[in-house]
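Can't paste images in this forum, so I'm doing it all in text. The chain is below; anyone willing to post the predicted structure tokens underneath?
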Amino acid sequence: MNYRAQHVWGVALVLAWAASACVGSDRRGVPLYTGGPRGSDEVAILVGPITRVDGVDVPTRGHAFELLPGCHIVEIGGKEGALSPQYGGWIASFPHLTYAFEMQARATYKITFEVDPSVGQPDNRPGQVVAREHDAQNRVRVIPFARSAADIKLCQSGSVAAPAK
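Text version of the structure:
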């Protein structure tokens, strides 16, 4: 097999792998709770380049997790990459950030790196880390990272204000 054929075959395999990650959107995440399986109406879904949840390392367990409702301390950081039909492949070094999520059942919490297509060269564009809650009523809100230990204690105390209705 010549170089061009190997390259095309390699790209095809990577694209097939990337597409398979998008198929089956009703796939469940890795449970991060004890006991038997729970119904999807009993858990929250956490998606992103997660490294730790509630003090437990999780970087090799996937990018989607199921958690019970309540306060969860989520950490990100390190390198992450993806393929995009619009932008090609990219790799980013995430800052080490901590989020204090007051998770609700049937909600999804996504931490993503969003590239700014209006700035920089196509192969070197800046972006930002964004965390969003998508609740059961299809409302979306941006959740900031924890800026201090007080933010984490507030979540753990159960005193976090409920999202606006």
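The mean pLDDT is 79. The first helix runs from residue 3 to 22.
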